[in-house]
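Structure (tokenized):
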């Protein structure tokens, strides 16, 4: 269940439309920041967009305004283009999903089903294809150093606000170097998905905050009317029909990222935000969700036994990584079946004590059977007790009454084993013999 399968790395700079509209409309009415020192103005240099001269001039103006607000200048040329939604669909197919096919979608859906987040037969590949085609308002391509804004009717409030957001990504990439200095690459994210989630939240939160500040300072009444009209008429049937865990995960970098960056900005302006890109990079979804834990509270990831060796011939590891606090919360509160969701307050309280986790999922290459182990560390013994009770309640709801030392239901066998005062493991398989072998390895 790599985080890459939830938010593709190629989509740095995407705005989820409904989220973007909500923030700029809300912030057009309310000022919530306390930092007041203005940044030094800095002009920018860009290539002509090839669009209507009035639109080109508008883009130039927005870039200058965003550069001044963000306190960063750029001395490279940024290509920019307006794109129709039909053209976007081709881009999604040819670029965003170029290395992601239906087979990979089936693999990811099966792993997420193991953790209760997606139905087993969910068509993840086609969901991504339809959802991105529906939802993207604009994006920044770091490889081409180019910005794209989706429009069908000119360059109004939604397009102007989107452009402000995307130009922040160009500034970030120029100054902080997404792939080089920041280490935000597919390869490194495979090794540390929690760091990847934190960096994406940093990137999107900064762009969302600056977009909000831009709208407060430079948004017109006409822009506001455009956004209000958009908010009342916009329909998103693909996104709205998504399983809850999937839709929640897609908005995480924007919603929680914005709150995280607002906290830094209130404490030290954009200098504090810049430090998060350089010397004080965030490490986990926990730090994004709870800015008071940043930067000191660094997760400790527990080791796991080699499940391939434990289960023997025919078994192969197909996924490994970290759930993180946010995905622990999603497992407990946002499962695909409402019947096994815990109350939000209970799930949030249990997840807040997260101190690190490691998971491994293996597959029997002959039978197709899946099995998984999640080792979870907690900050204190009290946190571990609270989380153990929450996972037990979740298991009662999902699998039915406990039979001895395991649960059986929904075609799965599952158990929880306390391994220390501050830790326990969650085991899940599709066969009781497999579960018993995992229990023995975990003890």
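Design, position by position:
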């Amino acid at each position: 269940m790599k985080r890459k399968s939830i938010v593709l790395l190629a989509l740095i700079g995407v705005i989820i439309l409904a989220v973007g509209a909500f923030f700029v409309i809300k912030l057009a009415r309310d000022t919530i920041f306390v930092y007041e020192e203005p940044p030094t103005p800095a002009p920018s240099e860009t290539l002509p967009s090839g669009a209507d001269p009035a639109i080109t001039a508008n883009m130039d103006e927005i870039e200058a305004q965003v550069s001044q607000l963000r306190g960063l200048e750029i001395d490279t040329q940024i290509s920019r283009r307006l794109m129709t939604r039909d053209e976007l669909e081709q881009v999604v197919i040819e670029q965003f999903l170029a290395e992601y096919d239906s087979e990979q979608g089936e693999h990811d859906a099966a792993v997420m089903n193991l953790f209760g987040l997606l139905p087993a037969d969910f068509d993840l590949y086609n969901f991504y294809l339809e959802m991105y085609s529906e939802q993207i308002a604009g994006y920044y391509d770091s490889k081409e150093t180019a910005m794209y804004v989706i429009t069908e009717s000119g360059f109004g409030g939604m397009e102007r606000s989107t452009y402000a957001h995307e130009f922040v990504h160009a500034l970030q990439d120029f100054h902080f170097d997404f792939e080089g200095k920041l280490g935000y690459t597919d390869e490194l994210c495979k090794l540390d998905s929690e760091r990847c989630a934190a960096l994406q939240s940093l990137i999107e939160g900064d762009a969302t905050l600056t977009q909000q500040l831009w709208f407060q300072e430079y948004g017109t009444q006409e822009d506001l009317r455009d956004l209000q009209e958009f908010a009342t008429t916009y329909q998103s049937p693909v996104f709205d029909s998504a399983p809850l865990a999937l839709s929640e995960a897609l908005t995480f970098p924007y919603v929680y990222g914005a709150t995280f960056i607002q906290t830094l900005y209130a404490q030290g302006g954009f200098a504090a935000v810049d430090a998060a890109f350089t010397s004080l990079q965030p490490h986990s979804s926990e730090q994004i969700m709870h800015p008071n834990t940043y930067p000191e509270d660094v997760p400790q990831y527990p080791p796991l036994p080699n499940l391939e060796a434990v289960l023997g011939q025919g078994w192969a590891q197909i996924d490994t990584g970290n759930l993180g606090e946010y995905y622990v919360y999603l497992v407990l509160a946002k499962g695909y079946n409402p019947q096994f969701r815990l109350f939000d307050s209970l799930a949030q309280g249990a997840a807040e004590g997260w101190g690190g986790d490691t998971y491994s999922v293996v597959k029997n290459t002959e039978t197709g059977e899946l099995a998984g182990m999640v080792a979870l560390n907690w900050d204190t013994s009290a946190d571990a007790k609270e989380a153990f009770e929450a996972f037990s309640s979740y298991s009662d709801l999902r699998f039915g009454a406990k039979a001895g030392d395991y649960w059986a239901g929904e075609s799965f066998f599952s158990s929880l084993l306390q391994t220390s005062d501050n830790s326990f493991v969650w085991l899940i398989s599709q066969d009781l013999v497999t579960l018993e072998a995992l229990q023995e390895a975990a003890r």
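Reviewer-requested clarification: Confidence is low (pLDDT under 50) at residues 3-50. The chain has 17 helices and ten strands.
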